[in-house]
Protein backbone atom coordinates (compact mmCIF):
# COMPACT_ATOMS: atom_id res chain seq x y z
CA UNK A 1 0.00 0.00 0.00
CA UNK A 2 1.17 3.52 -0.72
CA UNK A 3 1.88 6.17 1.84
CA UNK A 4 -0.16 9.23 0.76
CA UNK A 5 2.85 11.38 1.53
CA UNK A 6 4.72 9.38 -1.14
CA UNK A 7 2.14 8.93 -3.92
CA UNK A 8 4.19 6.78 -6.31
CA UNK A 9 3.08 3.55 -7.90
CA UNK A 10 4.29 0.50 -5.98
CA UNK A 11 6.74 -0.45 -8.72
CA UNK A 12 8.42 2.97 -8.76
CA UNK A 13 10.75 2.40 -5.81
CA UNK A 14 13.54 0.93 -7.91
CA UNK A 15 13.49 3.94 -10.25
CA UNK A 16 14.21 6.51 -7.54
CA UNK A 17 17.62 6.85 -6.01
CA UNK A 18 18.32 8.00 -2.48
CA UNK A 19 17.93 11.74 -2.03
CA UNK A 20 15.60 12.24 -4.99
CA UNK A 21 12.22 13.94 -4.57
CA UNK A 22 9.64 11.23 -3.99
CA UNK A 23 6.56 13.29 -4.87
CA UNK A 24 5.69 15.40 -7.87
CA UNK A 25 5.94 19.15 -7.25
CA UNK A 26 2.19 19.67 -7.10
CA UNK A 27 1.84 17.35 -4.09
CA UNK A 28 2.59 18.33 -0.50
CA UNK A 29 5.94 16.79 0.37
CA UNK A 30 5.14 15.63 3.91
CA UNK A 31 8.30 14.35 5.63
CA UNK A 32 8.30 10.74 6.70
CA UNK A 33 7.84 10.18 10.46
CA UNK A 34 11.14 9.72 12.27
CA UNK A 35 11.24 6.96 14.88
CA UNK A 36 8.51 4.70 16.22
CA UNK A 37 5.09 5.98 15.11
CA UNK A 38 1.82 4.36 14.10
CA UNK A 39 1.74 4.88 10.34
CA UNK A 40 -1.75 4.61 8.86
CA UNK A 41 -1.55 2.52 5.69
CA UNK A 42 -4.01 3.51 2.96
CA UNK A 43 -4.35 3.05 -0.78
CA UNK A 44 -5.42 6.66 -1.21
CA UNK A 45 -3.19 8.93 -3.29
CA UNK A 46 -3.35 12.72 -3.11
CA UNK A 47 -5.31 14.04 -6.06
CA UNK A 48 -6.66 10.69 -7.24
CA UNK A 49 -10.24 12.05 -7.35
CA UNK A 50 -9.23 15.29 -9.05
CA UNK A 51 -10.45 16.58 -12.39
CA UNK A 52 -7.55 18.01 -14.37
CA UNK A 53 -7.03 20.13 -17.45
CA UNK A 54 -3.61 21.34 -18.55
CA UNK A 55 -4.66 23.14 -21.73
CA UNK A 56 -6.42 26.50 -22.08
CA UNK A 57 -7.31 27.57 -18.54
CA UNK A 58 -5.58 24.90 -16.43
CA UNK A 59 -7.28 23.45 -13.38
CA UNK A 60 -6.75 20.59 -10.96
CA UNK A 61 -9.80 20.40 -8.71
CA UNK A 62 -11.04 17.83 -6.25
CA UNK A 63 -14.34 16.27 -7.20
CA UNK A 64 -16.79 16.93 -5.59
CA UNK A 65 -15.36 19.31 -2.95
CA UNK A 66 -14.52 22.12 -5.37
CA UNK A 67 -17.69 21.79 -7.42
CA UNK A 68 -20.11 21.82 -4.47
CA UNK A 69 -18.23 24.53 -2.54
CA UNK A 70 -17.83 26.87 -5.51
CA UNK A 71 -21.40 26.36 -6.75
CA UNK A 72 -22.97 26.96 -3.34
CA UNK A 73 -20.90 30.08 -2.70
CA UNK A 74 -21.62 31.40 -6.21
CA UNK A 75 -25.38 30.90 -5.77
CA UNK A 76 -25.25 32.57 -2.34
CA UNK A 77 -23.33 35.55 -3.72
CA UNK A 78 -25.68 36.07 -6.69
CA UNK A 79 -28.84 35.75 -4.59
CA UNK A 80 -27.50 38.11 -1.93
CA UNK A 81 -26.60 40.74 -4.53
CA UNK A 82 -29.95 40.43 -6.33
CA UNK A 83 -32.03 40.78 -3.16
CA UNK A 84 -29.64 42.95 -1.13
CA UNK A 85 -32.24 45.56 -0.24
CA UNK A 86 -34.52 43.08 1.53
CA UNK A 87 -32.02 40.75 3.19
CA UNK A 88 -30.87 42.77 6.20
CA UNK A 89 -33.78 41.58 8.43
CA UNK A 90 -33.05 38.01 7.35
CA UNK A 91 -29.40 38.24 8.36
CA UNK A 92 -30.29 40.01 11.61
CA UNK A 93 -32.79 37.30 12.50
CA UNK A 94 -30.35 34.54 11.59
CA UNK A 95 -27.57 36.00 13.73
CA UNK A 96 -29.83 36.64 16.71
CA UNK A 97 -31.46 33.21 16.50
CA UNK A 98 -28.15 31.36 16.44
CA UNK A 99 -26.38 33.37 19.13
CA UNK A 100 -29.52 33.68 21.24
CA UNK A 101 -30.47 30.00 21.25
CA UNK A 102 -27.07 28.33 20.92
CA UNK A 103 -24.80 30.58 22.95
CA UNK A 104 -24.54 27.78 25.55
CA UNK A 105 -23.26 25.43 22.83
CA UNK A 106 -20.54 27.81 21.63
CA UNK A 107 -19.41 28.61 25.19
CA UNK A 108 -19.41 24.96 26.23
CA UNK A 109 -17.41 23.97 23.14
CA UNK A 110 -14.90 26.74 23.85
CA UNK A 111 -14.44 25.45 27.38
CA UNK A 112 -13.92 21.90 26.09
CA UNK A 113 -11.15 23.12 23.77
CA UNK A 114 -9.34 24.93 26.60
CA UNK A 115 -9.65 21.96 28.97
CA UNK A 116 -8.40 19.61 26.24
CA UNK A 117 -5.27 21.70 25.77
CA UNK A 118 -4.61 21.99 29.52
CA UNK A 119 -5.11 18.24 30.07
CA UNK A 120 -2.73 17.38 27.24
CA UNK A 121 -0.08 19.77 28.58
CA UNK A 122 0.08 18.03 31.98
CA UNK A 123 -0.60 14.47 30.77
CA UNK A 124 1.95 11.90 29.50
CA UNK A 125 0.65 12.63 25.99
CA UNK A 126 2.47 15.95 26.20
CA UNK A 127 5.78 14.13 25.55
CA UNK A 128 4.70 12.88 22.12
CA UNK A 129 6.74 14.62 19.43
CA UNK A 130 5.09 15.81 16.21
CA UNK A 131 6.89 14.05 13.39
CA UNK A 132 8.05 11.11 15.47
CA UNK A 133 10.25 10.69 18.57
CA UNK A 134 13.42 11.40 16.57
CA UNK A 135 12.09 14.42 14.64
CA UNK A 136 13.83 17.79 15.01
CA UNK A 137 12.13 21.19 14.68
CA UNK A 138 12.02 22.69 11.21
CA UNK A 139 12.44 26.21 12.61
CA UNK A 140 14.43 27.83 15.41
CA UNK A 141 12.59 28.68 18.60
CA UNK A 142 12.70 32.42 17.86
CA UNK A 143 11.56 31.90 14.28
CA UNK A 144 8.73 29.64 15.41
CA UNK A 145 7.56 32.18 18.00
CA UNK A 146 7.67 34.92 15.36
CA UNK A 147 5.39 32.90 13.08
CA UNK A 148 2.97 32.19 15.92
CA UNK A 149 2.99 35.93 16.64
CA UNK A 150 2.20 36.59 12.97
CA UNK A 151 -0.69 34.14 13.09
CA UNK A 152 -2.17 36.06 16.02
CA UNK A 153 -2.40 39.36 14.21
CA UNK A 154 -5.40 40.21 12.05
CA UNK A 155 -7.90 42.82 11.02
CA UNK A 156 -9.91 42.10 14.17
CA UNK A 157 -7.12 43.49 16.36
CA UNK A 158 -7.22 46.74 14.39
CA UNK A 159 -11.01 46.99 14.36
CA UNK A 160 -11.60 45.99 17.98
CA UNK A 161 -8.29 47.04 19.59
CA UNK A 162 -9.84 50.29 20.85
CA UNK A 163 -13.54 49.67 20.25
CA UNK A 164 -13.93 46.55 22.39
CA UNK A 165 -12.19 47.66 25.61
CA UNK A 166 -14.00 51.01 25.37
CA UNK A 167 -17.34 49.35 24.71
CA UNK A 168 -17.03 46.98 27.67
CA UNK A 169 -15.72 49.78 29.91
CA UNK A 170 -18.62 52.11 29.08
CA UNK A 171 -21.22 49.35 29.47
CA UNK A 172 -19.73 48.13 32.77
CA UNK A 173 -19.54 51.68 34.15
CA UNK A 174 -23.20 52.34 33.29
CA UNK A 175 -24.17 49.06 34.96
CA UNK A 176 -27.16 46.78 34.40
CA UNK A 177 -30.31 48.23 32.84
CA UNK A 178 -33.49 46.25 33.43
CA UNK A 179 -36.66 46.78 31.37
CA UNK A 180 -39.74 44.62 31.99
CA UNK A 181 -37.65 42.26 34.07
CA UNK A 182 -35.03 41.72 31.35
CA UNK A 183 -31.51 43.18 31.15
CA UNK A 184 -31.09 45.33 28.04
CA UNK A 185 -27.55 46.56 28.67
CA UNK A 186 -24.32 45.18 27.18
CA UNK A 187 -22.26 45.07 30.37
CA UNK A 188 -20.28 41.86 31.05
CA UNK A 189 -21.37 39.90 34.11
CA UNK A 190 -22.90 42.26 36.71
CA UNK A 191 -21.09 45.37 35.47
CA UNK A 192 -19.40 47.88 37.80
CA UNK A 193 -21.92 50.68 38.21
CA UNK A 194 -20.21 54.02 38.84
CA UNK A 195 -16.86 52.37 39.68
CA UNK A 196 -14.31 53.64 37.12
CA UNK A 197 -11.47 51.37 38.25
CA UNK A 198 -13.80 48.37 38.51
CA UNK A 199 -15.25 49.08 35.07
CA UNK A 200 -11.76 49.37 33.60
CA UNK A 201 -10.70 46.08 35.17
CA UNK A 202 -13.85 44.27 34.03
CA UNK A 203 -13.74 45.80 30.55
CA UNK A 204 -10.16 44.68 29.97
CA UNK A 205 -10.81 41.23 31.48
CA UNK A 206 -13.77 40.74 29.11
CA UNK A 207 -11.68 41.87 26.13
CA UNK A 208 -8.78 39.55 26.98
CA UNK A 209 -11.28 36.72 27.48
CA UNK A 210 -12.24 37.13 23.80
CA UNK A 211 -8.62 37.23 22.61
CA UNK A 212 -6.84 34.92 25.05
CA UNK A 213 -6.84 31.21 25.89
CA UNK A 214 -10.25 30.26 24.48
CA UNK A 215 -9.74 31.42 20.89
CA UNK A 216 -6.18 30.14 20.78
CA UNK A 217 -7.32 26.78 22.14
CA UNK A 218 -9.66 26.60 19.13
CA UNK A 219 -6.70 27.07 16.80
CA UNK A 220 -4.48 24.74 18.85
CA UNK A 221 -6.93 21.83 18.75
CA UNK A 222 -7.25 21.92 14.97
CA UNK A 223 -3.55 22.61 14.36
CA UNK A 224 -2.49 19.78 16.68
CA UNK A 225 -4.86 17.30 15.05
CA UNK A 226 -3.65 18.24 11.56
CA UNK A 227 0.01 18.00 12.56
CA UNK A 228 -0.45 14.69 14.40
CA UNK A 229 -2.24 12.87 11.58
CA UNK A 230 0.05 14.25 8.90
CA UNK A 231 3.50 14.17 10.50
CA UNK A 232 3.02 11.10 12.72
CA UNK A 233 0.41 9.06 10.83
CA UNK A 234 1.53 9.81 7.26
CA UNK A 235 -1.81 11.19 6.01
CA UNK A 236 -2.25 14.28 3.79
CA UNK A 237 -2.32 17.68 5.50
CA UNK A 238 -6.06 18.07 4.94
CA UNK A 239 -9.08 18.40 7.22
CA UNK A 240 -10.45 14.95 6.49
CA UNK A 241 -7.27 13.21 7.67
CA UNK A 242 -8.07 14.16 11.27
CA UNK A 243 -11.16 11.94 11.20
CA UNK A 244 -9.45 8.70 10.19
CA UNK A 245 -9.94 7.23 13.71
CA UNK A 246 -13.69 7.83 13.34
CA UNK A 247 -14.38 6.98 9.68
CA UNK A 248 -11.36 4.95 8.59
CA UNK A 249 -10.93 4.79 4.82
CA UNK A 250 -14.38 6.34 4.42
CA UNK A 251 -12.72 9.75 4.88
CA UNK A 252 -11.76 9.48 1.20
CA UNK A 253 -15.49 9.32 0.41
CA UNK A 254 -18.49 11.43 1.37
CA UNK A 255 -17.72 11.83 5.09
CA UNK A 256 -14.41 13.41 4.11
CA UNK A 257 -16.00 15.45 1.30
CA UNK A 258 -18.50 16.96 3.76
CA UNK A 259 -15.74 17.84 6.24
CA UNK A 260 -13.66 19.57 3.56
CA UNK A 261 -16.70 21.41 2.17
CA UNK A 262 -17.53 22.70 5.65
CA UNK A 263 -13.91 23.82 6.02
CA UNK A 264 -14.15 25.79 2.75
CA UNK A 265 -17.45 27.40 3.79
CA UNK A 266 -16.14 28.30 7.26
CA UNK A 267 -12.92 29.77 5.91
CA UNK A 268 -14.42 31.86 3.12
CA UNK A 269 -17.18 33.36 5.27
CA UNK A 270 -14.80 33.89 8.18
CA UNK A 271 -12.45 35.72 5.82
CA UNK A 272 -15.33 37.67 4.29
CA UNK A 273 -16.28 38.86 7.79
CA UNK A 274 -12.74 40.11 8.39
CA UNK A 275 -12.54 41.73 4.96
CA UNK A 276 -15.83 43.48 5.56
CA UNK A 277 -14.61 44.80 8.91
CA UNK A 278 -11.41 45.96 7.25
CA UNK A 279 -13.34 47.80 4.54
CA UNK A 280 -15.53 49.48 7.17
CA UNK A 281 -12.52 50.70 9.14
CA UNK A 282 -10.31 51.65 6.19
CA UNK A 283 -13.02 53.79 4.57
CA UNK A 284 -13.79 55.41 7.94
CA UNK A 285 -10.09 56.20 8.36
CA UNK A 286 -9.82 57.65 4.85
CA UNK A 287 -12.85 59.81 5.55
CA UNK A 288 -11.46 60.92 8.91
CA UNK A 289 -8.00 61.71 7.52
CA UNK A 290 -8.64 62.89 3.97
CA UNK A 291 -12.34 63.71 3.86
CA UNK A 292 -13.17 60.89 1.42
CA UNK A 293 -16.85 59.99 1.75
CA UNK A 294 -17.27 56.76 3.74
CA UNK A 295 -20.10 55.48 1.54
CA UNK A 296 -21.02 51.95 0.56
CA UNK A 297 -19.63 52.67 -2.90
CA UNK A 298 -16.26 53.63 -1.37
CA UNK A 299 -16.20 50.39 0.63
CA UNK A 300 -16.93 48.32 -2.48
CA UNK A 301 -14.26 50.11 -4.51
CA UNK A 302 -11.79 49.53 -1.68
CA UNK A 303 -12.63 45.82 -1.54
CA UNK A 304 -12.20 45.52 -5.33
CA UNK A 305 -8.84 47.32 -5.34
CA UNK A 306 -7.45 45.37 -2.40
CA UNK A 307 -8.74 42.08 -3.81
CA UNK A 308 -6.79 42.87 -6.97
CA UNK A 309 -3.66 43.48 -4.90
CA UNK A 310 -4.25 40.22 -3.04
CA UNK A 311 -4.69 38.42 -6.36
CA UNK A 312 -1.35 39.74 -7.59
CA UNK A 313 0.23 38.51 -4.35
CA UNK A 314 -1.36 35.07 -4.78
CA UNK A 315 -0.12 34.82 -8.37
CA UNK A 316 3.39 35.77 -7.22
CA UNK A 317 3.36 32.82 -4.82
CA UNK A 318 4.16 32.29 -1.16
CA UNK A 319 7.80 33.41 -1.18
CA UNK A 320 7.50 36.49 -3.40
CA UNK A 321 3.99 37.59 -2.49
CA UNK A 322 2.50 36.33 0.75
CA UNK A 323 5.77 36.22 2.70
CA UNK A 324 6.87 39.75 1.77
CA UNK A 325 3.49 41.24 2.58
CA UNK A 326 3.35 39.35 5.88
CA UNK A 327 6.78 40.69 6.87
CA UNK A 328 5.72 44.24 5.99
CA UNK A 329 2.54 43.68 7.96
CA UNK A 330 4.44 42.59 11.04
CA UNK A 331 6.84 45.52 10.86
CA UNK A 332 4.00 48.04 10.65
CA UNK A 333 2.07 46.39 13.50
CA UNK A 334 5.10 46.44 15.79
CA UNK A 335 5.82 50.05 14.79
CA UNK A 336 2.28 51.15 15.71
CA UNK A 337 2.34 49.20 18.98
CA UNK A 338 5.71 50.62 20.07
CA UNK A 339 4.58 54.13 19.08
CA UNK A 340 1.43 53.96 21.23
CA UNK A 341 3.39 52.58 24.20
CA UNK A 342 6.09 55.26 23.82
CA UNK A 343 3.91 58.36 23.40
CA UNK A 344 0.83 57.19 25.28
CA UNK A 345 0.48 56.63 29.04
CA UNK A 346 3.58 54.39 29.07
CA UNK A 347 3.63 53.55 32.77
CA UNK A 348 -0.10 52.88 32.80
CA UNK A 349 0.27 50.53 29.82
CA UNK A 350 3.20 48.60 31.32
CA UNK A 351 1.61 48.19 34.74
CA UNK A 352 -1.79 47.66 33.17
CA UNK A 353 -0.46 44.67 31.24
CA UNK A 354 0.08 42.71 34.47
CA UNK A 355 -3.02 44.12 36.13
CA UNK A 356 -5.14 43.10 33.14
CA UNK A 357 -3.71 39.58 33.22
CA UNK A 358 -4.66 39.37 36.90
CA UNK A 359 -8.18 40.62 36.15
CA UNK A 360 -8.48 38.04 33.37
CA UNK A 361 -7.39 35.24 35.71
CA UNK A 362 -10.03 36.32 38.26
CA UNK A 363 -12.90 36.61 35.79
CA UNK A 364 -12.17 33.84 33.27
CA UNK A 365 -14.39 31.27 35.02
CA UNK A 366 -17.51 33.47 35.40
CA UNK A 367 -17.03 34.83 31.86
CA UNK A 368 -16.82 31.31 30.41
CA UNK A 369 -19.81 29.99 32.36
CA UNK A 370 -22.53 29.09 29.79
CA UNK A 371 -25.47 28.85 32.22
CA UNK A 372 -27.32 30.87 34.84
CA UNK A 373 -26.21 34.31 33.69
CA UNK A 374 -28.22 37.46 33.08
CA UNK A 375 -25.81 39.34 30.76
CA UNK A 376 -27.52 38.04 27.62
CA UNK A 377 -26.39 40.81 25.25
CA UNK A 378 -22.73 40.43 26.19
CA UNK A 379 -22.79 36.63 26.23
CA UNK A 380 -24.69 36.27 22.97
CA UNK A 381 -23.77 39.38 21.01
CA UNK A 382 -20.08 39.33 21.90
CA UNK A 383 -18.87 35.93 23.14
CA UNK A 384 -21.00 33.58 21.02
CA UNK A 385 -20.24 35.63 17.89
CA UNK A 386 -16.53 35.68 18.68
CA UNK A 387 -16.30 31.93 19.24
CA UNK A 388 -18.10 31.27 15.94
CA UNK A 389 -15.82 33.74 14.14
CA UNK A 390 -12.65 32.23 15.60
CA UNK A 391 -13.91 28.75 14.70
CA UNK A 392 -14.58 29.84 11.11
CA UNK A 393 -10.94 30.99 10.91
CA UNK A 394 -9.57 27.77 12.43
CA UNK A 395 -9.02 25.83 9.15
CA UNK A 396 -6.95 28.74 7.84
CA UNK A 397 -4.84 29.51 10.92
CA UNK A 398 -4.76 25.90 12.12
CA UNK A 399 -3.22 24.66 8.90
CA UNK A 400 -0.60 27.43 9.03
CA UNK A 401 0.35 26.59 12.61
CA UNK A 402 0.53 22.87 11.78
CA UNK A 403 2.85 23.55 8.84
CA UNK A 404 5.47 25.30 11.01
CA UNK A 405 5.33 23.11 14.14
CA UNK A 406 6.87 19.80 13.10
CA UNK A 407 9.48 18.58 15.55
CA UNK A 408 7.88 20.10 18.67
CA UNK A 409 6.45 18.01 21.48
CA UNK A 410 2.73 18.27 22.13
CA UNK A 411 3.51 20.05 25.40
CA UNK A 412 5.81 22.59 23.74
CA UNK A 413 3.31 23.08 20.95
CA UNK A 414 0.32 23.74 23.18
CA UNK A 415 2.14 26.01 25.63
CA UNK A 416 3.52 28.11 22.78
CA UNK A 417 0.32 28.25 20.74
CA UNK A 418 -1.78 29.16 23.79
CA UNK A 419 0.59 31.51 25.60
CA UNK A 420 2.66 33.43 23.02
CA UNK A 421 -0.17 34.75 20.81
CA UNK A 422 -2.40 35.33 23.84
CA UNK A 423 0.24 37.54 25.47
CA UNK A 424 0.68 39.47 22.23
CA UNK A 425 -3.07 40.10 22.11
CA UNK A 426 -3.08 41.17 25.78
CA UNK A 427 -0.28 43.68 25.13
CA UNK A 428 -2.03 45.00 22.02
CA UNK A 429 -5.37 45.46 23.77
CA UNK A 430 -3.71 46.95 26.84
CA UNK A 431 -1.77 49.47 24.76
CA UNK A 432 -4.58 50.59 22.46
CA UNK A 433 -7.62 49.98 24.61
CA UNK A 434 -5.92 51.02 27.83
CA UNK A 435 -4.78 54.29 26.25
CA UNK A 436 -8.32 54.98 25.06
CA UNK A 437 -9.76 54.34 28.53
CA UNK A 438 -7.10 56.57 30.14
CA UNK A 439 -7.94 59.39 27.72
CA UNK A 440 -11.64 58.96 28.48
CA UNK A 441 -11.08 59.02 32.25
CA UNK A 442 -8.99 62.14 31.68
CA UNK A 443 -12.03 63.94 30.30
CA UNK A 444 -11.91 63.25 26.54
CA UNK A 445 -15.34 62.04 25.36
CA UNK A 446 -14.57 61.72 21.66
CA UNK A 447 -13.68 58.04 21.71
CA UNK A 448 -16.93 57.08 23.42
CA UNK A 449 -18.95 59.17 20.96
CA UNK A 450 -17.12 57.95 17.82
CA UNK A 451 -18.63 55.18 15.65
CA UNK A 452 -17.19 51.70 16.13
CA UNK A 453 -14.97 51.87 13.05
CA UNK A 454 -13.59 55.32 14.00
CA UNK A 455 -12.64 54.71 17.63
CA UNK A 456 -9.03 53.79 16.74
CA UNK A 457 -8.51 57.02 14.79
CA UNK A 458 -10.24 59.07 17.47
CA UNK A 459 -7.77 57.69 20.01
CA UNK A 460 -4.72 58.25 17.79
CA UNK A 461 -5.84 61.83 17.21
CA UNK A 462 -5.13 62.60 20.86
CA UNK A 463 -1.51 61.43 20.61
CA UNK A 464 1.47 63.20 19.00
CA UNK A 465 2.02 62.77 15.25
CA UNK A 466 -1.61 61.76 14.84
CA UNK A 467 -1.67 62.29 11.07
CA UNK A 468 1.24 59.91 10.60
CA UNK A 469 0.02 57.28 13.07
CA UNK A 470 -3.51 57.37 11.62
CA UNK A 471 -2.11 56.94 8.11
CA UNK A 472 -0.04 53.97 9.32
CA UNK A 473 -3.22 52.59 10.88
CA UNK A 474 -5.04 52.79 7.53
CA UNK A 475 -2.14 51.16 5.70
CA UNK A 476 -2.00 48.44 8.35
CA UNK A 477 -5.71 47.70 7.97
CA UNK A 478 -5.26 47.45 4.19
CA UNK A 479 -2.19 45.21 4.44
CA UNK A 480 -3.99 42.98 6.97
CA UNK A 481 -6.81 42.88 4.43
CA UNK A 482 -4.44 41.74 1.67
CA UNK A 483 -2.49 39.17 3.70
CA UNK A 484 -5.67 37.61 5.08
CA UNK A 485 -7.12 37.33 1.58
CA UNK A 486 -4.07 35.89 -0.16
CA UNK A 487 -3.13 33.47 2.62
CA UNK A 488 -6.74 32.33 2.98
CA UNK A 489 -6.98 31.77 -0.77
CA UNK A 490 -3.98 29.44 -0.68
CA UNK A 491 -5.49 27.38 2.14
CA UNK A 492 -8.92 27.14 0.50
CA UNK A 493 -7.25 26.17 -2.76
CA UNK A 494 -5.30 23.41 -1.03
CA UNK A 495 -8.48 21.99 0.52
CA UNK A 496 -10.48 22.19 -2.73
CA UNK A 497 -7.60 20.69 -4.73
CA UNK A 498 -7.55 17.51 -2.65
CA UNK A 499 -4.44 18.40 -0.65
CA UNK A 500 -2.25 19.70 -3.48
CA UNK A 501 -0.36 22.88 -2.57
CA UNK A 502 0.72 23.98 -6.04
CA UNK A 503 -2.51 23.71 -8.01
CA UNK A 504 -2.81 25.89 -11.14
CA UNK A 505 -2.73 29.64 -10.50
CA UNK A 506 -6.23 30.33 -11.97
CA UNK A 507 -7.75 28.38 -9.05
CA UNK A 508 -6.06 30.68 -6.53
CA UNK A 509 -7.27 33.69 -8.47
CA UNK A 510 -10.78 32.23 -8.45
CA UNK A 511 -10.88 31.86 -4.66
CA UNK A 512 -9.23 35.21 -4.02
CA UNK A 513 -11.80 36.92 -6.24
CA UNK A 514 -14.65 35.07 -4.55
CA UNK A 515 -13.59 36.23 -1.10
CA UNK A 516 -13.92 39.82 -2.29
CA UNK A 517 -17.27 39.13 -3.97
CA UNK A 518 -18.69 37.45 -0.86
CA UNK A 519 -17.56 40.40 1.30
CA UNK A 520 -19.23 42.83 -1.12
CA UNK A 521 -22.41 40.76 -1.24
CA UNK A 522 -22.64 40.65 2.56
CA UNK A 523 -22.02 44.40 2.87
CA UNK A 524 -24.80 45.02 0.33
CA UNK A 525 -27.09 42.56 2.06
CA UNK A 526 -26.86 43.95 5.56
CA UNK A 527 -23.44 45.35 6.36
CA UNK A 528 -21.79 44.33 9.63
CA UNK A 529 -24.87 42.36 10.72
CA UNK A 530 -24.74 40.20 7.58
CA UNK A 531 -21.02 39.60 8.05
CA UNK A 532 -21.58 38.48 11.62
CA UNK A 533 -24.54 36.29 10.65
CA UNK A 534 -22.55 34.30 8.10
CA UNK A 535 -19.57 33.89 10.44
CA UNK A 536 -21.90 32.42 13.07
CA UNK A 537 -23.76 30.26 10.52
CA UNK A 538 -20.61 28.62 9.18
CA UNK A 539 -18.97 28.46 12.58
CA UNK A 540 -21.84 26.38 14.00
CA UNK A 541 -21.37 23.19 11.93
CA UNK A 542 -17.60 23.49 12.07
CA UNK A 543 -17.80 23.55 15.88
CA UNK A 544 -19.10 19.99 15.62
CA UNK A 545 -16.14 19.14 13.37
CA UNK A 546 -13.72 20.51 16.00
CA UNK A 547 -15.39 18.53 18.78
CA UNK A 548 -14.82 15.42 16.68
CA UNK A 549 -11.18 16.46 16.30
CA UNK A 550 -10.81 16.50 20.11
CA UNK A 551 -11.76 12.81 20.30
CA UNK A 552 -9.48 11.99 17.36
CA UNK A 553 -6.51 13.71 19.05
CA UNK A 554 -6.77 11.51 22.16
CA UNK A 555 -7.21 8.42 20.00
CA UNK A 556 -4.17 9.29 17.88
CA UNK A 557 -1.96 10.23 20.84
CA UNK A 558 -2.83 7.01 22.68
CA UNK A 559 -1.51 5.03 19.70
CA UNK A 560 1.68 7.11 19.65
CA UNK A 561 2.31 6.40 23.33
CA UNK A 562 1.92 2.67 22.68
CA UNK A 563 4.47 2.85 19.85
CA UNK A 564 6.97 4.71 22.04
CA UNK A 565 6.52 2.21 24.86
Automatic annotation (TrEMBL):
Q: What is this protein called?
A: BCCT transporter
* Keyword Repeat belongs to the record: no
What topology in the membrane does the UniProt record assign? Multi-pass membrane protein
Q: Where is this region: Disordered?
A: 1-34
Q: Which domain of life is it from?
A: Bacteria
Q: Where are the transmembrane segments?
A: 64-84, 104-122, 143-163, 213-231, 252-276, 296-318, 330-350, 384-402, 414-445, 465-483, 509-528, 534-554
Q: Where is the composition biased (Low complexity)?
A: 21-34
Question: Where is the protein situated, by its record's location annotation?
Answer: Cell membrane
Q: Where is the composition biased (Basic and acidic residues)?
A: 7-18
Sample GO molecular function, one term:
transmembrane transporter activity
| Species per Swiss-Prot/TrEMBL record | Paracoccus zhejiangensis
Q: Which GO terms describe its cellular component?
A: plasma membrane
Similarity remark = Belongs to the BCCT transporter (TC 2.A.15) family.
Q: What is its main location?
A: membrane
Q: What is the lineage of its organism?
A: Bacteria, Pseudomonadati, Pseudomonadota, Alphaproteobacteria, Rhodobacterales
- Which keywords are on file for this protein? Cell membrane, Membrane, Transmembrane, Transmembrane helix, Transport
Amino acid sequence: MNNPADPRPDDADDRITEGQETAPPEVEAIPEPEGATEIIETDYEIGQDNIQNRGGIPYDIHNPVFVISASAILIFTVVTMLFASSLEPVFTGLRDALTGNLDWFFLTAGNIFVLTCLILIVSPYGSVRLGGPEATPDFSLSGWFAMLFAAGMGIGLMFYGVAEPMGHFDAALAGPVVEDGVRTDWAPLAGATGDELGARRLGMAATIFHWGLHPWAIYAVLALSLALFSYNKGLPLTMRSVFYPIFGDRIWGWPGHVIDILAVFATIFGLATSLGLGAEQATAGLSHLFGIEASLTTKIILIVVITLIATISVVAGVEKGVKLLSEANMALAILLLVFVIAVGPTWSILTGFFGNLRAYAVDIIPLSNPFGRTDDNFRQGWTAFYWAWWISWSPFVGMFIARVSRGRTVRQFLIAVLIVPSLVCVLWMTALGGTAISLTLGGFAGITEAPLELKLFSMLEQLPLSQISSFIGIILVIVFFVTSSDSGSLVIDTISAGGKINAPVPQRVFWCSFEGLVAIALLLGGGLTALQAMAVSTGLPFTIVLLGAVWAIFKGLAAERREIA
